[in-house]
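Practice problem 4.
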């Protein structure tokens, strides 16, 4: 059946992402891939670290939370450009439009 945009797609149950949540204390810069968990809850263990996003591809997104109490997480693209900085306790939705990574919300 071809997609024709005439009727909304309905999901009748929750979607469970296999390996969808990663809770980790990182000990250095952390590089994500498109196979990485959608939800990243990261603690830098008292140090500032970079979280490096994968190459741009339309529709990829990550929810990233800085679970540390004293460190910042600097989110960067694969070219080392800073997308955003997460202070302790902050989380962010970061999405890709196929060309650039965009911060949608920081809370």
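Answer key:
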């Amino acid at each position: 059946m071809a997609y024709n945009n005439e009727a909304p797609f309905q999901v009748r149950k929750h979607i469970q992402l296999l390996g969808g949540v990663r809770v980790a204390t990182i000990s250095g810069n952390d590089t994500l891939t498109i196979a990485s968990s959608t939800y990243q809850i990261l603690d830098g263990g008292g140090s500032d670290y970079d979280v490096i996003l994968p190459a741009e591809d339309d529709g990829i997104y990550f929810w990233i939370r800085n679970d540390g109490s004293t460190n910042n997480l600097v989110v960067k693209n694969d070219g080392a450009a800073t997308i955003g900085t997460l202070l302790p306790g902050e989380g962010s939705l970061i999405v890709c439009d196929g060309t650039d990574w965009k911060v949608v919300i920081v809370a």
